[in-house]
Design goal:
Layout: H1 14-24, H2 26-40, E1 50-53, H3 61-64, E2 74-78, H4 81-90, E3 96-98, E4 111-116, H5 127-136, E5 137-147, E6 153-161, E7 164-171, H6 173-183, E8 188-195, E9 200-207, E10 213-217
Parallel strand pairs: 1-2, 1-4, 2-3, 4-5, 5-7, 8-10
Antiparallel strand pairs: 5-9, 6-7, 8-9
Length: 222
């Protein structure tokens, strides 16, 4: 889905239904809290600049601001006009911008970290997204993916919410590592993986010294 296409999140009633689920589900609340705690390991200064791609209605924003980041240190971007409208209404002091995470109008190394949670599994091709996350994040980037079996990329089909359909694609760590390496070619990267609830895994990609390539920190989660 390109920025010129209508987001399925903007089909009538879909953003509101998804937002209601996010707000009412205990599992979702626990998952978002876990993502906040994950970010707390790396966002160790309130002066760090962070860009979240696929910010939705601001569920991660409320985990980061003001606990970890100052108000102007966070920017959220999303393709959905309706999701952003909810975020702006709920968090009027926040910075929420309509933009395509696969073609960000930002300079290289524009922020310290880029984030993308529950985004790549909805995309038919993830290379452009990972390249943008890596290009813009000076220190690194963090994203989540739903887990598949070893060496697999698996499509579970499409999720339906009202009249909208959403791709649901899962990845193993071994399938993702070449994609991560391609995001920042010729650069040394250290990748930490953390298994999360709801069948997903977080990937924290740090730029580091040493020979080019991806170096796993610990045992990759599958």
């Amino acid at each position: 889905m390109l920025s010129s296409e209508r987001s399925p999140w903007d089909v009538d009633g879909v953003a509101e239904r998804i937002d209601a689920y996010w707000r009412e589900s205990r599992l979702e609340a626990a998952h978002v809290t876990a993502l906040g705690e994950l970010c707390a390991r790396y966002l160790t200064s309130r002066r760090l600049q962070v860009l979240e791609v696929g910010c939705g209605t601001g569920r991660i924003y409320r985990q980061l601001v003001p606990r970890l980041l100052g108000e102007r240190a966070y920017t959220g971007v999303d393709l959905s006009v309706r999701m952003l409208a909810i975020a702006r209404r709920r968090w009027p002091a926040g910075r929420f911008v309509l933009a395509d995470g696969r073609a960000l109008a930002l300079a290289d190394d524009a922020v310290d970290y880029t984030l993308a949670f529950e985004v790549v599994g909805h995309l038919p091709e993830i290379g452009r997204m990972l390249r943008e996350l890596g290009r813009v994040g000076r220190r690194g980037f963090v994203f989540t993916a739903w887990r598949a079996g070893e060496d697999e990329v698996a499509t579970d089909g499409c999720e339906r919410v009202g009249d909208a359909e959403f791709l649901h694609r899962c990845y193993s760590s071994s399938a993702l590592m070449p994609q991560i390496a391609a995001a920042l070619p010729g650069m040394a990267l250290e990748v930490e993986t953390t298994a999360l609830g709801a069948g997903s895994c977080a990937y924290v990609v740090h730029r580091c010294g040493g020979p080019p390539g991806v170096h796993a920190a610990g045992i990759p989660a599958r």
